[in-house]
């Protein structure tokens, strides 16, 4: 038996994945001489070429150039590797030689590319056209760009180019160095476009219609314009979806340094009292929201500045800012518990924003928000929160009635007092004064049918119960773990469901049928919140 065949037998008999040169010599009974080493080297090179073995990468070589250790190649694997070696010499095959399983999976595609590139390529086509020519599938080349890269090819090698989905735009050619605005919504795009057109707005070059998420793909069309370090800004909705689109766009095309159009967002906040109209199917991306907050922190700070003035006005009794309506939009007298509770919560939220963003101070533009400033702001907010809470204790707790009251001038019990517990977290639900207040609510606002009025002596439509009042009580009982009481207050609401499963503004205390406005959004919103809470109870 020849030396090569003997080594093959030895290799096949091995259970381990490697074999060393010493084993081979001993098996062959081959003395260590220069002539024998030359013969051995020649035979081993044949075996390497035929994919029986391959030198171990970490192994040393002797003076004759023979590796001390070899990796044994399974014959199935060897056949596959031989297939790879036989591919076009215009392809880089190193990756697939190391990852034969991937080759097997993508074999058909790889062989089609190899066959195509082995011949002269005529003409230049779009990527979809070339894809159809190679695979009879116009999308495959784009979808499997990873294979192209692994084979060391570019689109230029395949003589094809990418096409971009165009975006709709207005170009102000007179000012090519101006700002580029990307507008999420159609109506806003047309308005801004017309302003630029009619007023010859000289600091804007392009107004682009983003079409919502479409801009994430179509923005590549910007390569058709000769840019001169133009400032690019994005203007979309102030909601989860709008923020996500902006942050994804900024991340995907980071080379363009896209910013938020702060002037536009500020105008929204000046006009719209409640801009955060979040649709139910929108997804909150915490990372994107954090990035958006980082860029627009000044807007939050402006809101907090106003609330500070409001609080100081109350404390100093200047009468400049303290006028507000109660939650029922009926009473503008006095300082309302609900207003103060919401301010307390706003301060707390701002503190959380500072703490969240302050973790990476260096990330801020020009490092403008120093740690020292963050700590100073948090300290001031803590002091204001304490003052708000002290004011509530001193002015809105009636010692005689052992209850919190609705405002400084109207000392009635009100279901909205529960807002100080949920959602604003001014007080914990089991504090003594809170428990006293809930007891008073049950004594004064609960009707004989189990429904709750809004407040004491509510004369609106004969003082009928409001589903939202019961839902608020349900939330409170869930907060303190009183599941039975929560079920009772919630069951009352279920009894009041009217036609088409709508909840009313109020219900008739005798018939429990909806009374007055039917399909009240506020009632339905609170109902959803309660359902979410109930779903989390084990």
Task: Write a structural description.
- 28% of the residues are buried.
- The longest helix is centred in the last third of the chain and has 25 residues, at 371-395.
- The model is unreliable at 278-286 (pLDDT under 50).
- This protein has a five-stranded mixed β-sheet with strand order 6-8-7-9-10, with helices on one face.
- It contains 21 helices and 14 strands.
- Helices cover 48% and strands 9% of the residues.
- The protein has 538 residues and is α/β, with parallel strands linked by helices.
- It has helices at 3-13, 21-28, 34-49, 75-85, 94-98, 100-117, 127-135, 140-143, 145-150, 186-199, 215-218, 240-252, 262-271, 286-295, 297-316, 337-357, 371-395, 432-444, 467-479, 483-495, 521-535; strands spanning 18-20, 53-55, 69-72, 125-126, 160-161, 168-171, 179-183, 204-209, 232-235, 259-260, 397-398, 403-404, 504-507, 514-518.
- It is elongated, with a radius of gyration of 37 Å.
- The protein folds into five domains: 3-73; 85-161, no CATH class; 169-295, Rossmann fold (3-Layer(aba) Sandwich), CATH 3.40.50; 300-426, no CATH class; 445-538, no CATH class.
Gist of the model:
This protein has 538 residues and is α/β, with parallel strands linked by helices. 48% of the residues lie in helices and 9% in strands.
- The proportion of strand residues reads 5-15%
Report the mean per-residue pLDDT as an integer: 83
**How big is the Rg?**
37 Å
Largest sheet: 5 strands, mixed
Percent in helix: 40-55%
Say how many strands there are.
14
Number of helical stretches of at least 4 residues: 21
Rounded to the nearest angstrom, the distance between the terminal CA atoms is 76 Å
Instruction: Look at the helices and sheets and give the structural class.
Output: alpha/beta
The CATH architecture term of the largest domain is 3-Layer(aba) Sandwich
CATH level 1 class label of the largest domain: Alpha Beta
How many separate domains make up the residues?
Answer: 5
Assign the CATH topology of the largest domain: Rossmann fold
Estimate the global geometry from the Cα principal axes: elongated
